[in-house]
Amino acid sequence: EADIYQTPRYLVIGTGKKITLECSQTMGHDKMYWYQQDPGMELHLIHYSYGVNSTEKGDLSSESTVSRIRTEHFPLTLESARPSHTSQYLCASSDFKEKLFFGSGTQLSVL
Amino acid sequence: GQQVMQIPQYQHVQEGEDFTTYCNSSTTLSNIQWYKQRPGGHPVFLIQLVKSGEVKKQKRLTFQFGEAKKNSSLHITATQTTDVGTYFCAGNSGGYQKVTFGTGTKLQVIP
Q1: Would you call B48 and A100 a contact, using CB atoms and an 8 Å cutoff?
Q2: N or C: which end of chain A has fewer CB within 10 A?
Q3: Which residues of A touch B103 (CB under 8 A)?
Q4: Alpha carbons within 13 A on the beta-carbon side of B65
Q5: pLDDT for A2
Q6: Is the Cβ pair B42, A33 closer than 8 Å?
Q7: Over the stretch A17-52, which tens digit does the pLDDT of each residue have?
Q8: Chain B residue nearest residue A39, CA to CA
């Protein structure tokens, strides 16, 4: 169905490491989003983009940063990971009707 | 900012019983969407409602958008174990407003 890909699927790293979570979509969508979600809990919007060179912070304060150099690519970077960053990170893109397509997510564990 | 609340937070039902989740927005919405997230999975789009008072059905699922376009409901008739998951509503106020997800209702179906 949806052509939106996230890598890696699982990531276990030590405190202080720099990481980049990858997200790519092949649907040509302008809008892309990053959500943070703890198991069984709410989805918290941490970053979004309405197009190339457009990025905005979401509702939940996050120490991560994003970039949008190409329409299809929306990576999320943590400069120095901490145990409090342990969570699931979901990337999504939306069509002109605002229907969201989600990737399979990256489960991040910071030790 | 826009807030979207859902009740109940959790619901356990016996297989075959009906289930309803309610979604309320603090602002008027241009459209409402519903998503289902299976345990361990990512949210998957179910439906979008746009018109005031709109009612849509998908097999055993009935979706309704309130007259004032500030609330919505999802009703499942005769639940099955395949209905297990968390149901999220998501609202959009139009224009360049971002989609805001509700707090979610976690459904457990007891066989």
Answers
A1: no
A2: N
A3: 42
A4: 22
A5: 55
A6: no
A7: 999 999 999 999 999 999 999 988 899 999 999 999
A8: B40
Residue A96: the pLDDT is 81
Strands (E), chain B: 4-7, 10-14, 19-25, 31-37, 44-49, 55-58, 61-65, 71-76, 85-92, 100-101, 105-110
Please report residues of B whose CB lies closer than 8 A to that of A95: none
- What is the block-wise mean pLDDT of chain B (111 residues), using blocks of 10 residues? 90 97 94 95 95 97 97 98 97 74 95 94
Chain A residue numbers touching B1 (CB-CB < 8 A): 59
- Cβ within 8 Å, pair A42-B101: yes
Work out the angle at residue B63's Cα, subtended by the Cα atoms of residues B45 and B70, and round it to the nearest 5 degrees.
95
Question: How far is the C-alpha of B18 from the C-alpha of B12, rounded, in Å?
Answer: 11
CB contact under 8 A, A40 and B33: no
Q: CA-CA distance, B86 to B91, in Å (whole number)? A: 16
Task: List the structure tokens of A102.
Answer: 């989600």
